[in-house]
Amino acid sequence: MVWKEHEFSKNYVILKPHNANVFDLILFILPFGFKKRKLMDCPDGKEDSYRSFADRLIIFVSLLLQILILTIAIPLANLDAFLQKLFNFISFNGTIPQLFFKFVRGETLVQPNKSSPDYTSVVGFTDWRRDLDNSISPDDTFRYYSVLTVMASKLSYESLPFVQSVVNDRWKMKLLGYYNFWNDFQSRATTQAFMFQTTASDPNITVVAFRGTTPLDAYDWQVNVDFSWYDIHGVGRIHSGFMKALGLQKRKGWPKELTPTTTSAPQFAYYTLRQKLIDIAKTNANAREMILQGERMNKDLLLAERLWLPDIWSNFLDTASESVASEATT
Q1: Total-model pTM
Q2: TM spans, by residue (predicted)?
């Protein structure tokens, strides 16, 4: 039964756009057409809470947006792949004029190599910067780490060779890990992140950067417009998409520890990063500060850390405002 996937939470609303069509949506918004199990899932006895027109309208809008986004998922993916190949083909051959003259003169054109540190994402072509601003000193803490997190955010969309080249060679910092984290509900890797330390010689600050919404990834946008949520005891109602992306487990919710069934078991964001940060703190007495970067998922990770991670960090630097985390706990 699908509902058993959510039984760890006593209260939840899970929308099901894959089960819906336009006719179902029209019936759903009408007073006599409410059908809980068809388009949404919630605990038995809770369906009457969503019979008001305002509640059904919110659910209707969310489902409609998800359906529309999913219908263009393949064209968007094809467009992203085409643009990435086109932009990299031009970049590997210099500029558009250089590419033109190479073609006219019959010169051999360079084919882009996806394993190259120069192979760039579509997002990367919107901002060519790779180096940090040398005019800003690390002593100017706020400005320096504001710039660093902005650059890390941009870098999170790139491949491992690209990230390694920038972090290790250009920034002279130390890349600790590059991850594709598993989503237990979608049975695929949906969460990308990388971790690095500010300096190799004195790694006192650790930065964790999550990839945000990829502009031409329909599934990323679907998560953003999906209003599904879980009520987590001691925390409150939290967006289901971000919780799933961080490692929420079917039927188990957020167990204290995960027991890998095999050596090749998938990695989940919260559990992997938590252990990595604990290991860093144990091996380096100065490593007492960390920065979480990455749209709104860092807020869910922050909540999880406050609930389950031992208090080993004396200072916690969060690049966004605390308001989202505060609202989620109320």
Answers
A1: 0.83
A2: 57-77
